[in-house]
């Protein structure tokens, strides 16, 4: 059986083509998407990992808490926790959605 070579994806470039819109990665079933953020955005309160690919990202959490991610840093936010994503200038982020166990 011959297996086709999978394509390499440059996530930062793909995201920059659709700023401020989630871009689902192929064959991920919506569990993986990238965002190129140029402005503040409220995100769904589902459990996920945020991986900052480039730039810097502030994740505003309830009660005045926040996380500051720089390129190559990651953070997990549990399901049910409200959050707002704010880029410092611009940021490209990989979002890995965790399965819901409710």
TrEMBL record:
InterPro entries: RmlC-like_jellyroll
Protein name as annotated: Cupin domain-containing protein
Organism: Deinococcus peraridilitoris (strain DSM 19664 / LMG 22246 / CIP 109416 / KR-200)
């Amino acid at each position: 059986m011959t297996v086709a070579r999978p394509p390499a994806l440059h996530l930062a470039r793909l995201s920059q083509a659709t700023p401020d819109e989630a871009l689902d990665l192929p064959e991920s079933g919506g569990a993986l998407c990238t965002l190129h953020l140029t402005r503040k955005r409220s995100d769904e309160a589902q459990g996920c990992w945020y991986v900052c690919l480039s730039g810097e990202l502030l994740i505003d959490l309830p009660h005045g808490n926040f996380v500051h991610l720089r390129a190559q840093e990651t953070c997990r936010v549990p399901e049910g926790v409200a959050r707002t994503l704010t880029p410092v200038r611009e940021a490209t982020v990989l979002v890995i959605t965790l399965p819901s166990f409710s």
